[in-house]
Amino acid sequence: MGKLWEDVQKEPYTALFRPGLTALRLWRSVEILRAVDAVLKEQQAVREGRERMVAVHGNRLILHQVFRLLPRDRFDDDRLDFEGVRGAASRETVVVLELLAGSINQIYPNAYLNSLFKNLSKCKALTDETSIRFTPEGDER
């Protein structure tokens, strides 16, 4: 975390806080993060075994997948129905969790989940696998 603030003129700070970033886009992104985290917390309470652990350890990969389904290019538009977007994020979180858990069971059935989600190449493979199951509108194929 300290590396982020080490030099605000260099990465990783500049990668996160680009010059065109607006307060509205940042705030809406935080709101999506909170919505996804709330759903994952609920899912952790009702799921067991590996599915529960995917909700725990895969939280940021799930968030990444959910963000990819949302109209992020419109987060700066104050006419955007953001409540509708937040609701879609909550609904899609459950879908992504289920798809991700299924992909993990298929591709990495014996993997330790806490380690799996720290492996960039495996996360990319899982992202690719779960992404092909969605159309641009976010409906399952």
Would you tell me the overall average pLDDT?
Answer: 90
Count of extended strands: 0
Strand percentage, roughly? Answer: under 5%
The profile of the biggest β sheet is: none
Number of continuous helical runs = 8
Rg estimate, integer Å: 16 Å
Please provide the ordered H/E string of secondary-structure elements. HHHHHHHH
Count of domains: 1
**SS content category:** mainly alpha
CA(first)-CA(last) distance: 39 Å
Provide the helix percentage. Answer: 55-70%
Ranges where pLDDT stays below 50 over 5 or more residues in a row are 134-141
3D architecture notes:
The protein has eight helices and no strands. The protein has one domain (22-131). It is globular, with a radius of gyration of 16 Å. The longest helix is centred in the last third of the chain and has 26 residues, at 82-107. Helix 3 (23-46) runs antiparallel to helix 4 (49-57). It has 141 residues and is mostly helical. The chain has helices spanning 2-6, 13-16, 23-46, 49-57, 59-69, 82-107, 113-116, 120-131. 67% of the residues lie in helices and 0% in strands. The protein starts with a helix and ends in a 10-residue tail after the last helix.
Secondary structure: elements and pairs:
Elements: H1 2-6, H2 13-16, H3 23-46, H4 49-57, H5 59-69, H6 82-107, H7 113-116, H8 120-131
Helix pairs in contact: 3-4, 3-5, 3-6, 4-6, 5-6, 6-8
